[in-house]
Amino acid sequence: MPSWQASVLNTILSYVARPSISRGKAKLPLSQVRQRLLELDKRWLPWPEKLVTASIPLQHSTLLHYVLLDDTPRLGNLFYIRGGGFCFKTPHAHARLVADISERCRLDTFIPDYRLAPEHPYPAPCDDVLEAYLHLIELKGSDNLVLMGDSAGGNLALSLLLELKKRHLPMPKACVLLSPALDLAITGDTELILGADDPFFTIESLLRLRGAYLAGANPMSERVSPLQGNLADLPPLLVIAGTRELLLQDSERLVMQVKASGGAVESRFYHNMPHVFPLFHLLPEALEAREQIADFVLSQLIR
């Protein structure tokens, strides 16, 4: 049974988050929605006290280096790709999650601050993420490197793995995906999609963000919809999602396809949880998921 905190959060998301992303009657352009989200993120979510950042300039974007101020020896590095529907970012919310994961897993963290749609549609985010990853392995190597991404960041993470495999480039040691958006072609079960009681997304908001990112690109391309790619020979995966998600099928299909290809994948679908629920640290289920992530990551790094 889900916690009372989860029930409250789902109600709040239904009344606040879902209408703000859908176009509805407000007709706010995505750039204004982005600015409002950034203001709310900064106002209500304090930056983690022990987390400091440095910026590494790239050709069109920036690679952020997040460092926890403690004396714990590091086991490796985390390359975390933030979500936000390809159009938004919430630096404070993600910093709080990343700081916790970094501390639990004893990792330094690098975050690609990729360009956002609609101003910079596909392939700009993919290109920025690839450039940031290649720069990171130049700096730190690929040993004990963990890849992680949520939502649209999960899409970019799996797309990155397929591109690395295609180019015969060094892979990360493991990959964690939280509520990944993997099928922009929307080839799943339509009845399940329409019947989803998602407190965060509507079909309208999904199509709006999808259209802003694609800008006419082919949604069946494996770089856009990595579920369309060959998922064999990937590093071990952990997939976490909530059962109330509009995008739940993406995670379920990923797990099935990786298993069918002979790959190593673990998964957990949390009952009645919303999209990327591990971000919300007040949820008992979020803390449980973070502990699961730490167990998985440490099991891959310490052998």
TrEMBL record:
InterPro entries registered for this protein in UniProt: AB_hydrolase_3, AB_hydrolase_fold, GDXG_lipolytic_enzyme
Occurrences of domain Alpha/beta hydrolase fold-3 (ranges): 78-278
Pfam families linked to this entry: Abhydrolase_3
Protein name: Alpha/beta hydrolase
Keyword Hydrolase recorded: yes
Family: Belongs to the 'GDXG' lipolytic enzyme family.
GO molecular function: triacylglycerol lipase activity
Cleaved signal peptide residues: none
This protein's record includes keyword Iron-sulfur: no
Keyword line: Hydrolase
